[in-house]
Amino acid sequence: MNKIVGCGLASGLIAGVVTFAYTRWQIAPLVEQAVGFEEARSHAEQTLTGEHAHEHEVFTRVVQENVGAGTGIVAYGLIVGALFAVAFWMLTAFLARRRIAADPRWVSMTLAAAGFVAVTLVPFMVLPANPPGVGHEDSAGARTAGYLAALVASVLLAAVATVVAARLIPRIGRWPSVMLAGWGYVLAVCLLTAALPRFDEVPTPLLDTSGAVVFPGFPAALLADFRADSLTAAALMWAVLGTAFSMLLHRTSDRKVAYADR
């Protein structure tokens, strides 16, 4: 178990570093554009209302983009890596009890793919990531609660689907069981998405008293690029995590993991 957790932490560290590099290269420029829009819109609103506010950054933009973002992403990678290792250990033990043979590398990559879908993709479908300048402070609590609800429900549904598939394999075969459980998960996710609240908080054009546009709405292309790159970064983290974990586990083990008729 200690060896598995060690592989998970090392894999999470690698995944975090790689993801931060991608984020710094691809997403940071989009954040800069979004911050520029937010500041310009705030100035336009102050001009319309005659109010003036002065805000001072506690940390400089450079510190936030490098130290803050880097520390956060790497720490997240370590946490996910540790949880991934525990999930891998539990899954292999479950497969052993069900006498289902599977290669550890296959289990690792499948678990990473399932983690991306359950932990990242489904909550993202319900509440996609927003850049600076999109969203209201008043609804921040509701958005966070909705995201956590989607995350917990998605993970639980994925766990139930895994158990159902494993129990059906001896009766109807491997692929029919996987397909049936998979489609059941998709249906449950669709119902979940329809039940949770939606938030449409993209800034619209700013109008003066005569109805003339004095400042445009948030650029649609910028929003789409930010969300697409955010999802890509998450997919990259899970892919690197699964690949690194399977390679490290294979290299540091002189014997096979005890499971599945081994």
UniProtKB/TrEMBL annotation:
<dbReference type="Pfam" id="PF09490">
    <property type="entry name" value="CbtA"/>
</dbReference>
<keyword id="KW-0812">Transmembrane</keyword>
<feature type="transmembrane region" description="Helical">
    <location>
        <begin position="106"/>
        <end position="127"/>
    </location>
</feature>
<dbReference type="InterPro" id="IPR012666">
    <property type="entry name" value="CbtA_put"/>
</dbReference>
<protein>
    <submittedName>
        <fullName>Uncharacterized membrane protein, predicted cobalt tansporter CbtA</fullName>
    </submittedName>
</protein>
<keyword id="KW-1133">Transmembrane helix</keyword>
<feature type="transmembrane region" description="Helical">
    <location>
        <begin position="178"/>
        <end position="196"/>
    </location>
</feature>
<feature type="transmembrane region" description="Helical">
    <location>
        <begin position="73"/>
        <end position="94"/>
    </location>
</feature>
<feature type="transmembrane region" description="Helical">
    <location>
        <begin position="231"/>
        <end position="249"/>
    </location>
</feature>
<feature type="transmembrane region" description="Helical">
    <location>
        <begin position="147"/>
        <end position="166"/>
    </location>
</feature>
<keyword id="KW-0472">Membrane</keyword>
